[in-house]
Amino acid sequence: MELRTLRAFVEVIRCGGFTEAGKTIFATQSTVSKMVKQLEEDVGVQLIDRSGQRARPTEPGLLVYQRALDMLAMRDELLMQIGELHSFKRGVLRVGVPTVGGDTLFAPVIAEYRRRFPLIQINLIEHGSAHLHALLRGGDLDVAGILLPVESDLEFRKVRREPVVVLTPEGAYPARKASISLAELQDQSFLLFQQGFALNDMILAACHRQGFVPNVAMQSAQTRFIAKLVEARLGVAFMPRMVAMADRPGGVALLDLDDPDIAWDMSLAWRRDGYLPKAATAFIDLVHEIVADQ
Fold first, then answer.
1. HSE (CB half, 13 Å, CA atoms) of 230?
2. pLDDT tens digits, 42-83
3. For residue 57, what are the β-bridge partners?
4. pLDDT at 281
5. What is the reported pLDDT for 153?
6. d(CA 167, CA 173)
7. Which residue from 84, 106, 86, 104 is spatially nearest to 289, judged by alpha carbons?
8. Which residues pair with 158 in a beta bridge?
9. How many whole angstroms separate alpha carbon 147 and alpha carbon 179?
């Protein structure tokens, strides 16, 4: 039972004849007659009373007519929804944002995306770069904010490069001091992010290059909590400048980190060989429009 056959049958009932139905679906009278006959053979009963001047449905024919209307309506609705997906009026965007800096960097983009595409459902996951990469690789995300460098199985666009600054208790260093090296901090307690955060790996690797293993006093996923611990003089911390500026309490000072190899290079990444929905493409373009470095 094909939808085209059901359409022919419906038009015969609507128009009251085979010739008129043929004009509606651009088919000859004999073609329409054959299609309806085939439908009757498929269901095993007569569907049209051909005895009068107008073609009328039999009792089973009326039932088939009503069901056929429902099926054709569902077909039309499906085609409309597919068309909306193609033009990304509807759909789902699965996006991952970094816990560190995700709110500052991507919240304005998500708000504008919602305004432009209100019918697209946004599924948002916050985590560190390593976990977001795993979700991308597994097909659980369409696109994610990940620190550079990214693995070769991902495509990416650069989004923002931010210097990493050191958060120290107010007054711990002379006010005129603008920058500090890791070597000068090796006797301090380090307040780092949790495992899976790429910034941690950069800091630890840089300490290793300078010949020491830092004393990690505490780890957290919350930037504001870490900043408050610095204010309480439990240690020093490291954050992208824009994050530190947004989350710094009054009792915390910021110093530039004197290490050219450490920077917060944020990218927007997606699977190299995966399908990228139009909803995700639109998000990538919007990130570039609103927050990406020019």
1. 30
2. 889 999 998 888 889 999 989 999 898 888 888 887 876 777
3. 48
4. 92
5. 87
6. 11
7. 106
8. 267
9. 23
pLDDT above 90 (res 143): yes
Select from 124, 105, 101 the least CA-distant residue to 114.
Answer: 124
What does the DSSP assignment read for the chain? --HHHHHHHHHHHHHTSHHHHHHHHT--HHHHHHHHHHHHHHHTS--EE-SSSS-EE-HHHHHHHHHHHHHHHHHHHHHHHHHHHHTTSSEEEEEEEETTTHHHHHHHHHHHHHHH-TTEEEEEEEE-HHHHHHHHHTTS-SEEEEESS--TTEEEEEEEEEEEEEEEETTSS-TT--EE-TGGGTTSEEEEEPTT-HHHHHHHHHHHHTT---EEEEEES-HHHHHHHHHTTS-EEEEEHHHHHHH--TTEEEEEE--TT-EEEEEEEEESSS---HHHHHHHHHHHHHTS--
Question: Does pLDDT of 160 surpass 50?
Answer: yes
pLDDT band, very low/low/confident/very high, at 84 (cuts 50, 70, 90)? low
Tokens representing residue 181 in the block: 């090296």
190 pLDDT band (50/70/90 cuts)? very high
Hey, what's the torsion of the CAs at 161, 198, 132, 168, to 10 degrees? -80
Residue 293 pLDDT exceeds 70: no
pLDDT greater than 70 at residue 176? yes
Quick one: average pLDDT of 229-258?
92
Can you list the domains of the chain with their CATH numbers? 3-86 (1.10.10.10), 91-159+265-290 (3.40.190.10), 162-263 (3.40.190.10)
Question: What is the crossing angle of helices 29-43 and 59-86, to 10°?
Answer: 110
Q: Which of 30, 27, 44, 36 is nearest to 5 (CA)?
A: 36
